[in-house]
## 1
Amino acid sequence: MINAVRGTQDIFAQEAELWRYIEMQAVKIFEQAGFQEIRTPIFEDTALFARAVGDDSDIVSKEMYSFMDRGQRSITLRPEGTAGIMRAFIEKHMDRGSKPLKFWYSGPMFRYERPQSGRYRQFHQIGLEAIGSSSYLLDIEILLLALKLLDALGLKHSCRLCINSLGNDSSRKMFTQALREFLAPLQNSVCSDCQRRFHSNPLRALDCKVEADQYLYKNAPKIKNFFDEESAKIWNQIQQSLINLEIDFEVDESLVRGLDYYSHLVFEIKAENLGAQNTIIGGGRYDKLAESLGGNPSPAVGFALGLERLAALLTNLILSKKSIFIISDDSSAAQKLALQLRKDLDCIIEYDYENSKFKKQLEKAIRKPYAYAIFYLEEERRQNCFGLKDLKNNQDLGSQTYSELIAKLG
Ligand code: HAM
């Protein structure tokens, strides 16, 4: 037997319906704010992710699904959406038009991570990217859209927003220097990942999940003490706007995010009751990504949410439409009735295709369970009426005319 590959899942029935519901809510909210859909390829040139996400990031150094194609090109299944969208933006010269360009996207991403609850090797993101403006108001807009979606899904009160700023390049350079000096004497005592990061990207050490390392980093220098005027101003504007808008947030000075393209604002939204993998949304500003990919300066900001994690918070949401099963001794008569009912009702309407015995059809209707059964047997057809039964409450609702039936089930 061939099973699904480790870290992948089949999504069907109610769960697929829930995903669609989340996506519909997201699209409604995002498009109202002028974001338009973009679909980029699922695989890209490996160099794109190495350059955009960072050679030394966990994603590029150990989590990418990369392979040589038949033309000996190194190809990678996209581990995230931002890099591909920026590649498309540059390639299609979209920076020539009016800015910012605002995109939403939805689709599968691939990372070779250790699978566990809430962490998969194929997972799905819905995201937003706004490219071409450095206004802090766009950062606020992005945050508000993330929060609005959570609110629409009834999750506002079970999530918390954590923010931090990584400042601009020159602030970060000075901070990195100070951090290196602080970390140097600790190198024999920290984990091997942190030892590697010390050389390539010491900032990432702050984000280390090893408790003993975190203890050693307690007195590490703080990035905000290295902010220049511009970085401090933007950081204050963002915090002040959130306060003015009465949005709850926490400043988490250890939040640096696992992708190297960020500057200024970084943020995560975490859910209570979701175990270890509780970050449902991650994002921030990436002002230098366009240039690092060979484009013109195009400051940008965005986020992505993990659909699996979000859906796990919504398992109690009842979405299903009313479902009705037609029981008949003549499947073609049942089909004709179903076609008419589907025109007149916004319900799920099914029937038996095989002229099965009455008892078998009734058992099926009860077992599924359907909410209602319509009896459409020879007797009903002769009298031009319909027997109706509420299966949930096991209650016979008697014989109905067609218009009575529509009124009752509509
Ligand atoms: P990220 O934090 O790597 O950011 O991923 C965003 C979200 O995707 C996470 O918060 C999580 O919910 C979900 N996620 C990530 N990895 C997995 C996994 N292995 N299994 C299940 N869910 C996962 C990015 O990808 C950035 N591109 C976000 C962004 C957009 N920044 C700016 N614009």
## 2
Amino acid sequence: MFRKVRKQLTIFNSVLMGSFLLLFTVITYVSLAWNVYSQIQNDVLDYAKEEAAENLALLKAKTYLRPDFIINEAEKSEMQFFYVFNNHGKLVHSSAPHSGLPRMVNRKIAQGNLRDNQPALITFKHSNHHFRVMLTTLPIKDGPIVYGRIYVGKNVTNLYQIFLELLYTFALLLVVFLFLTTLAGFIMAGKAMAPIKRSYEQQREFLADASHELRTPLSVLLSSVDAIQGDEQNQVTPFSQQVLADMRDEIKKMTKIVSDLLTLARSDGAVLNLMKKQFDLIKVAEQTMRIINPLAQSKSIELRFASPQSIIIYADEERIAQLLLILLDNAVKYTPEHGQVQLLIQQRDQASTEIEMVVQDNGIGIAPAEQARIFERFYRVDKARSRTLGGTGLGLPIAKWIAEQHGGSIKVISQPGQGSCFVVTLPGTI
Ligand code: ADP
């Protein structure tokens, strides 16, 4: 139980810390990248405006100039370049005229999908290299008269690469810190739970000791009542006989509660070990049916049993018998007179060795909202009804514990007013 709570606390802590870390990383990275991106956009725009002003005179004079740079320089990272076109679309001046990157930029320009004053990051592939270029365009004009157009670009491949590597580093750091916070969370959860675990252990030990100590006086009481009832020379009035009989019933109920409490207290402390051996499950089931038969007959409930001839399993015989008794006792208890209770034991399917034990009744049933809770200790759907029927709310938790200790499970399928079906699945190789 504590291991489960510790795991849940650790997961909760990791998810919380992980979300904060992720948020922090994303905000830091995005704001950093956005700042640099905007800075480059501004640089490119400033450069475009500067060159547009310088080239205005050339366009007015209709002078065509030779390029300023050779291609290799234009391909260098951080390098800025420009192209100036006149109104007829003729290239009149550029800083990088030849093949390679400028040629690709030319192609992009020809597509004409760049917007004025809005630099965009564009990727070009050239001889297996990817170039990232911040590209923009501006009309070259003097007042309302347009003389041409300038295209300006800046090669930011290296910077882009740095940011990509920064992204990987951030992702790696995130994973490392997530691992560290999970580890720290696990250790902290263990430390926080230590005192709770100690006091829980003390309570459990007290409960186990108290129930154990109560068993002896109870059995002394029971045998004393038996002795008085059996003493033929004793002159007890019919009234006293009745009182004695009631006392006997109450002592038996109390003995059952004490024994159930002891089972659960010991199971919590893992003091209770299963005594596994090979036995015939069908024989044990038949015996349990015989035990429950008088109770069923007293309510005119029809008991049915369907199973193969024999199923040999390796389990704790006493505990499996206890589990069946709990389910059958409940089925009879919570089924009105003239009802039906059926026990079905079968191999789950041909291929698997799993065994299914199904206890079905057509009694009062259990509402869906209650179905998950009935396996909790002391939980009873209708406390008053359960108490009059001798219920304590400890039966199903013990049944669940037995099934799980054998590596199996228990579930309930039920409809209020229609009946309940408890299915216990046990692995075949138990
Ligand atoms: P109890 O000793 O009260 O029967 P259990 O732990 O065995 O305690 O069962 C818990 C509650 O589940 C019961 O009080 C009852 O309300 C409900 N329950 C168990 N079995 C059945 C059943 N076959 N039909 C209807 N209700 C059931």
